[in-house]
Amino acid sequence: MEEQERTELSLLRLFRQCAHIQHKMGHLHGQGRILILLLHHGAMTQRELADHTQRRSATLSEQLEAMEKAGLILRSKNSTDKRNVDVHLTEEGLLLARQAAFEREELAIKLFSCLDETQMQTLSGILQILKENWYALEQTETAEKETEL
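Below the sequence we write its predicted structure tokens.
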């Protein structure tokens, strides 16, 4: 049991180290992700962006406000549901979104070029399993916390 715990801790440490390096090498962390989402999906509601980015509404709202002031996005009331706010890229935002998407693709190539196709497929499968398991764990913990209240 002790050997397994050490292996799991070692994996967690390696995972965090890789995530830290990947984060440091990336540019436009939060804004870049929002710009790329809008580039690929077109206009989205603020609620849809919050769901995609897994950000709290208040955090996302602050980020969008800064992006709007910088001239990257426009926000407007949704024409069918006035409670929702639509977020659109401006021309400047579109240019920056294309640049961010290009940089993200270049980063992915740099980070994973050390793996062959089989290794990438294996890693992808493992990460998918972890993501699904961790999501289920998160949902269970959230439900347990809600029942404690």
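Residues 2-114 form a domain with the Arc Repressor Mutant, subunit A fold (CATH 1.10.10.10).
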